[in-house]
Amino acid sequence: MPDTPADHAARLDRLPQWEALGKHREQLGEVHLRDLFAADSERGQRYTLDVGDLRIDYSKHLVTDETLALLRQLAEVRGVAALRDAMFRGEKINVTENRAVLHIALRAPHDTVIEVDGESVMPRVHWVLNKMCLFSEKVRSGEWTGHTGKRIRNVVNIGIGGSDLGPAMAYEALRPYTSRDLQFRFVSNVDGADLHEAVRDLDPAETLFIISSKTFTTIETITNAKSARGWLLKGLGGDETAVAKHFVAVSTNAEKVAEFGINTDNMFEFWDWVGGRYSYDSAIGLSLMVAIGPDHFREMLAGFHLIDEHFQLAPIEANAPFLLGLLGVWYGNFHDAQTHAVLPYSHYLSRFTAYLQQLDMESNGKSVDREGHRVNWQTGPVVWGTPGTNGQHAYYQLLHQGTKLIPADFIGFAKPIAELGELADHHDLLMANFFAQTQALAFGKTPEEVAAEGVPAELVPHKTFVGNRPTTTILAKELTPSVLGQLVALYEHKVFVQGAIWNIDSFDQWGVELGKVLAKRIEPALTEGAEVPGLDSSTSALVREYRSLRGR
Ligand code: F6P
C-alpha cells in the first residue's frame, strides 16, 4: 500500500521524538554503566520501582534521566495512554479482527462497568468464574466421579498455544499450591507421542480430559481430543455415555463443542474479546483452577488486577509496563538488539519464558502497521531463556563475552517454598548467583583488574569482561498466586506499550495461517500419494523421500 503524505507525517521513524532519541543514542556512545553508577551514588535506589509485590530495579540499563524522558515523550506522542484507555473501555482496538481486547475484564471486580456492543461483560465473566469454581470443587472433593463411579485422579488438558501454554506454565509455577493427590498433564503437540506419554500410565476410569480451544477447530487439539476419546472408550468398554463424565470443554464455540459430542452443560465459555495468548485467566485456566483450587485462582486474578490498575493509573514515569516497554524500544530500535532474554531464578518458572514467547512474539512479531503499511522499524524481539542457574552453564558465556547485545530480565524470589525443608538451604546459593550475574553483566572486569590478579598477558583479553550488558532485576518475596498474576500482567502490558509505539496490531496473529493451510494441502500427498499442484521441487522431493522412508 503506498504511503500518503499523512502516513509519512505519522511515520514513527520521522518523528522529532524518534530523531531526538537517535541523536541521544549517538551522544551517549558507549557510556559505561561503571561511569553512570560512579556519577550517581543513588542510582540503584532512584532507578527502582515498587509495584505491588514486585521490586523492579532498572538501574543496570544503558539509560540516563534524559534517555528516560525522551522515551516517555515518544510514548506520549504515539498516544499509548489513549490506546490503553480505549482498551480498558472495551473499544475494538484489535482492528484487523474488529474485536475488543478485554483480558483485563477477566480479573476485574464484579461492579466494573465494561461494555462491548452495548452489553455489559462483567456478569458473564463472573458467572463463568463461579461455574468453574463449582466444577473445580466437585473434582477436587471427589464428588465428580468418572463413568464407573471412581474418583478422578488425573486431569489432562488438551489444547495448544494460548490454550496450553498459560495453564501449563502456571501449573508448574504454582505446584506448591496444587492438590498433590491429583495428577495433571498437558497435551498440545499433534505428534501422537505427546498424548501417548501423557496417558500411557493412567487409568481411563480415573481420568478427566479438559478440551481447551477458543475456536474448537484447531487441528492439533481436535485430533488429540478424538484420540483421547478413543483411548477412553477402549479402556471403559466402548460405552459412549462415558464421554459425559470424562470430557469437558473450554471454548467460545458451543456449536463445535456439541458437534464433537461434549454436552454444552459441561462447557466453560469465554469470548472473542479474549485473545488466545491472553486467556489463561479465563476458563482456559480451568485445569489450573482444579489444581490450585478456586481461592488460589482468585488470588492470582487479584494479582493481575493489581497490575491492571497500576498500568491504568500510575503516572508514566512510575508506570512499570510503560518503563519496561520503552526500555525494549530503546534496545530494539536504538541499539539493534534482536533478542530479549527472560531468566527466572526459580525452578517453578521453568515454563515462564515459553509462555512469554507466545505472548510477546505472537503479539508483536509483525511487519505491517495497523493501517497495513510496511514498517520501517524493528518490532518485537526474539524472546528466549531458561531458568537460572542452568543457563549459566550453557549460553551465559555469550551473554558475558559475545558480540551481541542481549537485554535480559532476571526474576528471583527472597523465600524458597516452605515444602523444601532442608533443601531450602540451596536458596541463598541460587540467589547469590542471581545477584552476581547482573553485577558481572553490568560492570564486567577490566583488563587492569585481570592483570592485577597476575594473569599472564596473553590471557588478559580472554579473561576480560567488557560489561555494560543491560538487565532488569525483578525481585519478590515469594512466588505466590498473586505474584504470578502480577508478573504475567506486567508482561502483557509491556507488550501492549511496545505494540502501541510501533503502531502494530498486537492482538491478531495472521502469521500462523499460511502454515496451517499448506499443511492441510500437503497431508494427502503424505498419506495417499496425491499430487499437490504447484509444489516446489524441494518440498516435492522431500515428500517423495518421506513416503519411501515410510514404506509407501
Ligand atoms: O497459533 C495460533 C493460535 O490461534 C493461537 O493464537 C491460539 O492460542 C492457538 O492457535 C490455539 O487456538 P485455539 O484455542 O482456538 O485452539
Automatic annotation (TrEMBL):
Keyword Disulfide bond tagged: no
Assigned EC number: 5.3.1.9
Catalytic activity: alpha-D-glucose 6-phosphate = beta-D-fructose 6-phosphate
Domain of life: Bacteria
Uppermost EC category: isomerase
UniProt-listed CDD domains: SIS_PGI_1, SIS_PGI_2
One of the record's GO molecular function terms: glucose-6-phosphate isomerase activity
Pfam family, one: PGI
InterPro entries, per database record: G6P_Isomerase, G6P_Isomerase_C, Phosphoglucose_isomerase_CS, SIS_dom_sf, SIS_PGI_1, SIS_PGI_2
Localization (cell): Cytoplasm
Predominant location: cytoplasm
Keywords: Cytoplasm, Gluconeogenesis, Glycolysis, Isomerase
Pathway note: Carbohydrate degradation; glycolysis; D-glyceraldehyde 3-phosphate and glycerone phosphate from D-glucose: step 2/4; Carbohydrate biosynthesis; gluconeogenesis
Active site positions, chain numbering: E362 (proton donor), H393, K516
Alphabetized NCBIfam families for the sequence: PRK00179.1 (NF001211)
Family: Belongs to the GPI family.
Purpose of the protein: Catalyzes the reversible isomerization of glucose-6-phosphate to fructose-6-phosphate.
Protein name: Glucose-6-phosphate isomerase
Native organism: Streptantibioticus ferralitis
Origin organism lineage: Bacteria, Bacillati, Actinomycetota, Actinomycetes, Kitasatosporales
